[in-house]
Specification:
single chain, mainly alpha, 3-stranded mixed β-sheet, two-stranded parallel ribbon, 54% helix
Length: 433
C-alpha cells in the first residue's frame, strides 16, 4: 500500500529532525574520494591503526600487541594506575566523539579502550624517539627500519588520528612532562624529515598530529592574506621560462618557513626544500585536511605554486642548481611527477589562492621585453664564461681567435677595397677614351 503525501512528509521530517548539528570540535575526517583516487596509498595506513576509521582491518591487527607493550611501559612512568587512565579518557568521551566527522558506532567501553591504547601508543612513540635510552631492546619499531618507516607514514595520515588534547592529557600524567613539553616531543619526532620549524609558542591550538605538522610549516606572522576580491585564477610560468624572461631565483634563509615565498625587484625567493619519500604523504594529508576543515588554504596554495613552477624534469634540475630543491627521490622525473600530481581539484577560487598576487606580479614582470633582453644577455655571458673563459688558457685562445678573425676580416676588406679601386680606375679610363 503506497504512502500518502502526508506520510512521506512525516518520514522525511523524522529524518531531518534526527540530524545532529556539526560540532565545532569536528576535525578528523575521511579523505574525500576524489583526492584518494590520485594515490590511495598516501592516505591508507600500512601497519598500524590509530583511531576508529581503520580499526577493523585485519592486516593492521598484528600491531595491537605492540600497542599493549607500549601501554605497559607508559603505566610504569606514571603514578596513575590503569583504572585512573580509563577514567581520564571516559571523562573526555563526549568531546572525543565530537572530533570525528561521522557518528562513531562503538559503545562507550570499546571507544574508551581504543582511544586510550592508541593515544598512549603515540605518546610513548614520541617519548622513545626523544629518549633512545628508553627504548626496549626488542622494540620492533625502533629496531627495524622498515617498521619505523611504516609507523612514521601511518602517524601522518588524516584518517589515522586521535585528538591532540587526548595526547596532551595523557602525557601530563607522567613526570617527564615537567621537563619536556609534548610540543617539543612531537617536533623532535618529525623534524628530520619535514621542512617545518619548531613552534615558538606552546599555546598554539592544534587539533591532531596532521594539524600540528601543518602548523610547523606556517610562518609565525603570515604575510599573505586571503582576499575576498574575485579575480581570474592566474598561475605563473615554469621556473625555466621565468628565468628566460628575466626573473632571478634565490633560496630563502634556512630559518624561513617553507611558505615564505617572495618576489621583489625581479628576484623570486623560494625557501630550500628537501623532496623525499615522505613529501607526498604529508603534503597530501595536509591538503586533504585543508579541503575538509580549514578556510585558509596555505598548503594547498603552495602545492599549486610548485606545480606551476615545475612542468618538466628540467625545471627540477634548474631549482636544484639554484639551491632551492634537494631531490632525494632518485630522479628529476620522480620529483616532477610528484609536484604535478599532488594538486588535483583542490581549489579554483582566487580568494583562496594566497599566491595569486605574487603570480600576477611574476607574469607582468616576465612579459616586459626589457627584462627578456637582459635575461638573454645574461645567458650569453654565462655561456661565454662557461665554455670559453673557464680557465686562462681557453680565454687566451678565444682572444687570439677573435684577433685573428678581426685581422682576417680587415685583410679581406682591404683586398675588396683594392679590387674595387682597380675596377674603378679601369672604368674611368674607358670612359675617358
Amino acid at each position: 500500500m503506497s504512502k500518502t503525501v502526508k506520510e512521506v512528509a512525516a518520514t522525511i521530517r523524522t529524518k531531518m529532525d534526527s540530524l545532529s548539528p556539526k560540532s565545532t570540535e569536528c576535525c578528523i575526517y575521511r579523505v574525500p574520494e576524489k583526492l584518494r583516487r590520485a594515490n590511495a596509498d598516501a592516505y591508507t595506513p600500512q601497519v598500524i591503526s590509530i583511531g576508529p576509521f581503520h580499526r577493523d582491518k585485519e592486516e593492521l591487527k598484528l600491531t595491537e600487541e605492540i600497542k599493549l607493550k607500549y601501554l605497559t611501559t607508559f603505566l610504569c612512568r606514571t603514578k596513575y594506575d590503569l583504572v585512573a587512565c580509563i577514567r581520564k579518557i571516559r571523562d573526555l568521551e563526549d568531546r572525543i566523539r565530537q572530533c570525528y566527522c561521522e557518528n562513531l558506532t562503538q559503545a562507550s567501553e570499546e571507544l574508551v579502550e581504543m582511544i586510550l591504547v592508541d593515544a598512549v601508543f603515540v605518546v610513548e612513540l614520541f617519548i622513545r624517539n626523544h629518549y633512545p635510552a628508553q627504548q626496549d631492546p626488542d622494540d620492533e619499531i625502533f629496531s627495524k627500519q622498515w617498521m619505523g618507516n611504516a609507523v612514521f607514514h601511518d602517524v601522518l595520515l588524516l584518517e589515522n588520528q586521535v585528538p591532540f588534547f587526548v595526547l596532551e592529557n595523557l602525557y601530563n600524567l607522567i613526570t617527564l612532562s615537567a621537563t619536556v613539553t609534548f610540543f617539543k616531543l612531537s617536533y623532535e619526532y618529525f623534524k628530520d624529515v619535514l621542512n617545518g620549524h619548531e613552534l615558538a609558542s606552546i599555546r598554539v591550538q592544534v587539533k591532531h598530529v596532521v594539524d600540528f605538522v601543518r602548523a610547523l610549516q606556517l610562518p609565525s606572522s603570515w604575510q599573505y592574506k586571503t582576499s575576498k576580491e574575485r579575480r581570474t585564477f592566474e598561475l605563473t610560468r615554469s621556473a625555466k621560462e621565468l628565468r628566460e624572461a628575466g626573473v632571478r631565483f634565490r633560496p630563502g634563509k634556512e630559518t624561513s618557513s617553507l611558505l615564505d615565498v617572495d618576489f621583489k625587484d625581479g628576484t623570486l625567493v623560494l625557501p630550500h626544500m628537501v623532496v623525499h619519500q615522505w613529501t607526498e604523504v604529508y603534503f597530501r594529508n595536509m591538503i586533504a585536511y585543508e579541503q575538509c576543515h580549514r578556510s585558509d588554504k596555505y598548503i594547498s596554495s603552495y602545492a599549486i605554486l610548485m606545480d606551476s613552477l615545475i612542468n618538466t624534469p628540467n625545471d627540477v634540475d634548474f631549482l636544484i642548481n639554484h639551491g632551492i630543491l634537494k631531490n632525494q627521490l632518485g630522479s628529476a622525473d620522480d620529483a616532477a611527477n610528484l609536484f604535478n600530481s599532488m594538486y588535483r581539484e583542490t581549489l579554483r577560487d582566487t580568494s583562496e589562492f594566497v599566491y595569486s598576487s605574487l603570480c600576477q606580479n611574476l607574469n607582468a614582470y616576465s612579459r616586459n621585453r626589457w627584462h627578456q633582453w637582459k635575461a638573454a644577455w645574461y645567458q650569453w655571458r654565462v655561456i661565454l664564461r662557461r665554455d670559453y673563459f673557464s680557465n686562462p688558457w681557453s680565454g687566451i685562445s678565444v682572444v687570439a681567435a677573435i684577433i685573428l678573425l678581426v685581422l682576417t676580416l680587415v685583410q679581406t676588406a682591404c683586398s675588396l677595397l683594392d679590387i674595387y679601386e682597380g675596377d674603378a680606375r679601369t672604368l674611368f679610363r674607358r670612359r675617358k677614351w
